[in-house]
C-alpha cells in the first residue's frame, strides 16, 4: 500500500455559493444561538444562587454549582459557532478521505461544508436543549442526550460513505 500526501496548496480553491437549504441551516443556527443567549439571560435572573449542574442516569442531581455556570454553554456555543463558521470558509484545507482533484473538488467541498454547517446546527440544538433543561423542574431522561449525540454522529457516517462513493 502506497500513501501519497497531497499538499493543501495543490488543491483547487473554489468559492462556494450557498444553496437555499444551506442558507436555511445557517439561519437556523443563528436563531438557535440567539434563542440560547436570550433564554439564558432571561432565566439567569430567576434562578437561585445554587443550581443543579449534573444529573446521574436515574435523573437525580449529583452536582451543584453557581448559577453563573449556566453561562458556560452559550459561551462555548458561541465559540464553536464562530470557529466552525471560520473553518467552513476554507474547505481546501480540510482533511478528506479521497484525493481532491479539479473534477471532484466542487462536490467534495460542498459535501464537507454542508457537513460542518449541519453539525454546527445540531450542536447548537443540543446545547440549547441543555440550557432549556436547566430551567425545567424535571430534567430530560439520560437517553435524550444519548439520542442527540447519536444524531450528531449520523451525518458524519453518512458523509464519509457518500464522500468515498463520489470520488
Question: Any overview of this molecule?
Answer:
Strands 1-2 form a two-stranded antiparallel ribbon. A hairpin with a 5-residue loop joins strand 1 (50-55) and strand 2 (61-66). The radius of gyration is 20 Å and the shape is elongated. Helix 2 (72-87) runs antiparallel to helix 3 (105-134). 57% of the residues lie in helices and 7% in strands. The two termini are 19 Å apart. The chain is built from four helices and two strands. The protein has helices spanning 20-44, 72-87, 105-134, 142-165, and strands spanning 50-55, 61-66. The protein is mainly α and 167 residues long. The protein has one domain (19-165).
- Helix fraction by DSSP (H/I, runs of at least 4): 55-70%
Largest sheet: 2 strands, antiparallel
Low-confidence segments, ≥5 residues, pLDDT <50? 1-5
Query: Count of DSSP E strands?
Result: 2
Task: Provide a short characterization of the protein structure.
This protein has helices at 20-44, 72-87, 105-134, 142-165, and strands spanning 50-55, 61-66.
Amino acid at each position: 500500500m502506497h500513501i501519497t500526501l497531497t499538499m493543501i496548496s495543490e488543491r483547487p480553491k473554489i468559492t462556494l455559493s450557498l444553496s437555499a437549504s444551506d442558507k436555511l441551516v445557517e439561519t437556523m443556527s443563528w436563531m438557535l444561538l440567539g434563542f440560547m443567549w436570550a433564554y439564558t439571560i432571561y432565566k439567569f435572573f430567576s434562578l437561585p444562587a445554587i443550581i443543579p449542574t449534573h444529573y446521574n442516569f436515574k435523573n437525580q442531581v449529583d452536582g451543584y454549582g453557581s448559577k453563573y455556570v449556566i453561562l458556560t454553554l452559550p459561551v462555548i456555543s458561541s465559540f464553536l459557532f464562530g470557529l466552525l463558521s471560520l473553518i467552513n470558509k476554507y474547505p481546501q484545507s480540510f482533511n478528506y478521505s479521497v484525493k481532491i482533484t479539479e473534477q471532484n473538488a466542487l462536490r467534495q467541498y460542498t459535501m464537507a461544508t454542508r457537513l460542518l454547517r449541519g453539525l454546527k446546527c445540531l450542536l447548537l440544538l443540543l446545547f440549547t436543549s441543555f440550557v432549556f433543561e436547566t430551567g425545567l423542574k424535571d430534567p430530560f431522561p439520560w437517553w435524550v442526550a444519548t439520542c442527540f449525540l447519536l444524531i450528531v454522529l449520523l451525518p458524519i457516517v453518512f458523509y464519509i460513505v457518500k464522500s468515498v462513493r463520489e470520488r
